[in-house]
Design brief:
Chain lengths: 115, 112
């Protein structure tokens, strides 16, 4: 089975722009979670989507949003980019999304640099 | 209540030695404790995970020890190899859905 794929792998944007990142989960997985990884704050949970609905949300401003499609693929969007948004954005998928914590499988991430 | 504290920040171990990384949590609602390994330029990869109904779980050279009363868990890497040099993260989850709270990470270097 193919793993979690994320596109693009690298991205350079300028302050004030917006960006959309894409994640394709492992085939058959229905839950997709997003994390931000920075040297200063470490790995922080952004949000989780299951059945096209946001089920969990971390402590990030409203500039960070996401969605999930009927095929479980997910996108996250960051509007009005700030320098501090430079980070590795990781997507993780889980099998069934039953509501109880499951194993999460991470993709390689999208490295975003905001200039 | 959401924190997971991980120590040490970095660790140097001789080849063949035992690497030990410790984590402590506060939220008693957590009931799933995974360890992830991350190499530069890659996403975290699951190493091993434990739930509180057992005190120890072993997979190959990797062992998790879990102390529910102390709210602590640790990763032991036996016979450490240079290829184990990576960053290791503990995490906790289980409140609802798939949301992990991560420790700050430990950079492990195994000297050959």
């Amino acid at each position: 089975k193919a793993g979690v794929t994320q596109t693009p792998r690298y991205l350079i944007k300028t302050r004030g722009q917006q960006v959309t990142l894409s994640c394709s989960p492992i085939s058959g997985h229905r839950s997709v979670s997003w994390y931000q990884q920075t040297p200063g704050q470490g790995l922080q949970f952004l949000f989780e989507y299951f059945s096209e609905t946001q089920r969990n949300k971390g402590n990030f401003p409203g500039r960070f949003s996401g969605r999930q499609f009927s095929n479980s693929r997910s996108e996250m969007n960051v509007s009005t980019l700030e320098l501090g948004d430079s980070a590795l954005y990781l997507c993780a998928s889980s099998p069934t999304g039953t509501g109880k914590q499951e194993t999460q499988y991470f993709g390689p991430g999208t490295r975003l640099l905001v200039l | 209540q959401q924190q997971v504290k991980q120590s040490p920040q970095s660790l140097i171990v001789q080849k063949g030695g035992i690497s030990i990384i410790n984590c402590a949590y506060e939220n008693t609602a957590f009931d799933y404790f995974p360890w992830y390994q991350q190499f530069p330029g890659k996403g975290p990869a699951l190493l091993i995970a434990i739930r509180p109904d057992v005190s120890e779980k072993k997979e190959g050279r990797f062992t998790i020890s879990f102390n529910k009363s102390a709210k602590q868990f640790s990763l032991h890497i036996m016979d450490s190899q240079p290829g184990d040099s990576a960053t290791y993260f503990c995490a906790a989850g289980g409140e609802y859905g798939n949301k992990l709270v991560f420790g700050a990470g430990t950079i492990l270097r195994v000297k050959s």
